[in-house]
Amino acid sequence: MGAAHFRMAHEERSAKVLYLSGEPLEILKAQKVSPHCDHVFVDDSGAPLRYDAILEDFQQACKRAKIVDGFYGCAQGTRLSGFHDLRGTFTGVANRAGLPHGIIMEIAGWKSEAMLLLYLGNSQLADQRAAFERLASGV
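Above: the chain's sequence. Below: its structure in token form.
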């Protein structure tokens, strides 16, 4: 287990700590560290990569993983995948795994449960069934 500290360039608050293990931690450890900047993703000269370049690589990786239809946006139309989709995916997976909403909010960076609930959307029937089964079994 390791801890990664992240700070958005435009924010002055303290860095967010994210605990990682396994492959995600190894990928970050393998990144080149530039003595001239504190960005995670840099080019061969050590200059930070632009967001659009990283996003294009991310979208190409999604295509290679056969995530070709994109994700559903608020208007329910498909679009290309983006980093923000990872936040929503994590939220749903963490919720189905039974993590308390407060913990999910801390990890994902939401300040209100109302925003978390907006991202969780309507529960799936299978999730509702599993919840009732847990209640019935006394868990």
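The first strand starts at residue 2 and ends at 6.
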